[in-house]
Every structure is written in structure tokens, then in C-alpha cells.
Amino acid sequence: MIRLIQLELQKLWLNRTSKILIFVSFILPFTVLVLSSIKINFFGFFTLELGELGIFNFPIIWHITTFCASYFKFFFAIVVVSMIGNEYSNKTLKQNLIDGLSKKEFILSKFYTIVFFSLAATLLIGLATFCIGMYYSSYTEATIVFREVEFLLAYFVKLVGFFSLCLFFGMLLKRSAFALAFLFILYIVEWLVFWGAYEIFDSADKAFQVKNFMPLESMYKLIDQPFQRVVMTKFPDKAELGYDYAVHFSEVAIVIGWTALFIFLSYRLLKKRDL
């Protein structure tokens, strides 16, 4: 496994664009550190400091940071599809196979690299979240600090699943731009599935239940938006604001299932394709 990761890291390191995108994909999530120190002056009447609003208290901070950081995954998604596009355009795929790398090892090298970067991103976000929380949070008891740390697991699974989808599209289309465009097409398809389910069941709730099994939607549902939860903490008497924001094993299992399918399909495409 280490040998395969080293092989991919060497390829990425030699590509200037990949190095820049990887750097950006790791740095941008840390903008949450900047947000925590922002002070907004409202025409001299009062100053609003985000860090003092309670949104960086434990345990809610695990929810907020992982949700916000997940939106920066598109930068590394470009790296993933570029890994495949460059293999075909530079003929390195064929050369790797000639040099003794099996097709299974080739796909595994890509998957291991995805897991490596996803794990690194998760650890960095976890460290940043912990530091911000310890500075701003009113609660420092261990039981509260680590109460919702499962959002980090959801963040990791979300990254691996999304990048595995990008890998599959990259293998399917061989071109980075087309692979990224297919993400948008898939987004549209999932909404068409929703409306189809709505016509069948005549229920928006059941239609959303069907949509929740689709790849992009299942990844999104791993970490629900935290903003409604923030409002709930300010207005606890508003019962209508309540919603289920927890990380559920069933949702994690769905994304893991899609991840396994995408990796398997990528391998089958490579195995059957005439290089």
C-alpha cells in the first residue's frame, strides 16, 4: 500500500497544477480560523464578533466546521480527475502496466491516495476544530468536548465517497473537464429521480427518502446544514425549528456502499478497456 501511495505522490509532486490544487484544498478549509476572529462593526453602534456568538462552543463546533470545510472538496476533486486524465494523455498508464503494475494495483494506488488525502484533511480539520473550540468554548469537560466527534468520521467518509465518484467519472470519460461536468449532470439526474418518486408516491417525504439513496444526496446527508441548529440554540422555545442533524450509521453505510461500487466499476472499466 505504501509503495502505491508513494508512486502516486511522486506523480502529483511532478505536476505543478496538482501541487497548487492540493495546497489550496488543504489551506482553504482553515478559513474557519479566520471566521472565528472576524469582528463586524455596525456603523459604530456595536461590534459583532462571531467567536462570541457561541457557534464555536463544543460540541456544535464539530458540526459547523466539518460542514463548511466539506465545500472545499471540489479543489481536490479536480486533482483526482486530473490524475486519470493525465494518465491517458501522458501515456503513463500504459507505461505503468508495462513496468509490471497490475490493473488492480493501478486502481488501488488511486484509491489509497484518495484515502490518504481524505485522512490528512480530516486530521487537520479535527485539530483546527479542537483548537478553536478550546479557545472559544464555554465548555471544556471531556464528555462535552468529544461528544459529537463522529462528525469527523462523517467528513472522512464524505470525502472518500466523493473522490471515489470523481475517480469513476475520470475512468469512464478519460477527460477532466467532462468528468467534472458529469457531476453536475448527476445532480440534475438525482432531482429528476426525486420528481419521479414524487409523482409515484404523491409525497415529498417519500420522494426525499428515495433521493437520499442517490450518490450526491447521500454524501450531503452525512452532515446536514448546522445553521438551523444554531438558531435553535438561540431560540430553544421554537419547537418547529427542531430537526434530525445527527450522524447515522445507515447514512454512513450508504456512502460506503457507493464508494465500494465506484472503485469496483473503475476497476472493471480498466480491466475491459483496450489500452
Walk me through what this model shows:
- The protein is mainly α.
- The chain has one domain (2-272).
- The chain contains 14 helices and 2 strands.
- It has a two-stranded antiparallel sheet.
- A hairpin with a 3-residue loop joins strand 1 (39-42) and strand 2 (46-49).
- The longest helix is centred in the middle third of the chain and has 34 residues, at 103-136.
- The radius of gyration is 21 Å and the shape is globular.
- The model has no long low-confidence stretch (mean pLDDT 83).
What descriptors fit this protein?
mainly alpha, 275 residues, 14 helices, globular, two-stranded antiparallel sheet
Helical content, roughly?
over 70%
Mean pLDDT value: 83
**Strand runs, count:** 2
Number of domain modules: 1
Strand content: under 5%
Report low-confidence residues grouped into runs of 5 or more: none
Biggest sheet overview: 2 strands, antiparallel
What is the N-to-C order of secondary-structure elements (H for helix, E for strand)? HHHEEHHHHHHHHHHH
Task: Output the number of helix runs.
Answer: 14
What is the rounded distance between the termini? 24 Å
GO molecular function: ABC-type transporter activity
Keywords: Membrane, Transmembrane, Transmembrane helix
Protein name: ABC-2 family transporter protein
Pfam family, one: ABC2_membrane_2
